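Re: your question from the hallway

Yes, I did run it. Sequences:
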Amino acid sequence: MGIIPQIIANSIIAGAIYALIALGFNLIYRTTKFFNLAHGALTVVGGYAMFFLYKELGWNVYASAVLAIVFAGFVGYILDKAIFRQLRLRKASQMVFLVASLGLLTVIQAIIAILFTSQFQTLANNSTESRVYTIAGGIITQTQAIILICGIVVLALLTLMLKKTMFGRAVNAVSDDEEVSKMVGIHTDKIIGWVFFIGSAIAGLSGILVGFDTGLEPTMGMHLLLKGVIAAIIGGVGTMHGAFAGAFLLGFAENFGVWQFSGEWKDAIAFIILIIFLLFRPQGIFKK
Amino acid sequence: MPYLIHIAILFFIYAILGVGLNLIVGYAGLLSVTHAAFYGIGAYATAVALAHYGLGFFASVILGIVITAIVSLLAGMVLSKFKDDYYALASFGFNVIAFSIFLNWESVTKGPLGIPGIDRPSLFGFTFSANETFLALAVVLFGAVYALAHFIANSSFGRVLKAIREDEKALEVFGYKVAYFKLAIFVIGAAMASIAGSLFASYITYIDPSSFSLNESIFILAIVIMGGLGSLRGTLAGALFLILLPEILRFVGLPTDIAAQMRQIIYGAILVLLMLYRPKGFIGEYEVK
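Structure:
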């Protein structure tokens, strides 16, 4: 019995991280309709921007975080303008987008590895060892509590933005039909640019949180991205609450799987769940 | 000179991998990113057969091909349910699962420690222990794979595959069982990767799971896309370029670890630029689509 509350706590934390990545990925996917593998690179960009500002320059933690998040968003925005927009103009197929974004992921991770070495780095300070909370027998650190809160806040803000604001309605319109949106006078390129900014900023935030919780590695982008994509698909591609539910389902499945088998099987479990969902319920938990 | 022979052997191993993957991606239009899994199965088949069971190299090649054929048939059947980007993503999944098995099935693969002391191949009492003779063996196996791929590409089977890639619906209307054709080429391409794996294991004489990760599959895919889909000569050019690239970077004076990252940057950037300006690859016949 004793270990179960801790596994539940770990599952929830893993779920919250996957949820953040899945939310950003999903936002971009529903508007542009391609698997943006470069999304994983933005978690690395955000995490290492934080590392540079907070650890190397010694800035205040909040200022560094805000700037690092904005920087990740900005990089995403630039990638859209410089590359994905050009591909859209050419009416490139999904495969072309996929290969191009895979190339970008490779380039960005390698640049970060040259700038910051491929060593494992952590954002957490030893001196300010974070507080620990015990909830119903499960232990979570302060960082992990912040991760969970960020996940919920981002979901709430995204949902509100998409439902209540003019910008959100425009995003929904572009998601439904880009051509028609253009005809009714929506500046689609501008909307997609902003979607990339917001989605990438969320990726940057997840990178920072992972950096505080477990640590940073230039190759973590691919890994985090795949978990986010799996979460988004098993939740139901295109719906925000679906991505959230999928992420927690994945978090629970992985952590209970690890408990039953061993830690090394974690990634295999994630993909087995994905393949089972794709075969038997391709529309995900929540259908859009 | 020994250094050049080493590079040449690596080139032929990657050329075999690329040719096999080009049949799958280029001819059949299936964006498979799981080639390293089959490469790994071949390598482990040879490693285990030689190191533990004392089987001959050539018997282990056959063993690897048989296991790979069975695994790739099953994987291909599951993958055939998916299209386009979902196909690619599910194929990532197979690579990750295969990698986890290499890493965790310790009683067979020795897990992360890997299998050392794999013998060089021998035939009728002659051992290919010197790199020169090993190169000759690599050339012969490569020649056989290339000839088979060339034959398939120009056979009626190959023409049906090309037609499927152009217009799958039309072929179905004509009564072709499209799924069988795709499955067949997937298994053939995978078996070629297994041969490359056997060569790799007995050349390096040590293997561990890290050589068969998802990144390796992406690297092989880069060789194929760079050279050009549906062009076997293009694949050779792509393999030559990507194998020589880190050596050139080292030659220019970059330290080894930076050279490795520079290679990633250059091939990633080339993929992006090709997608923007030349989706056919260097000398390809068809665009990525």
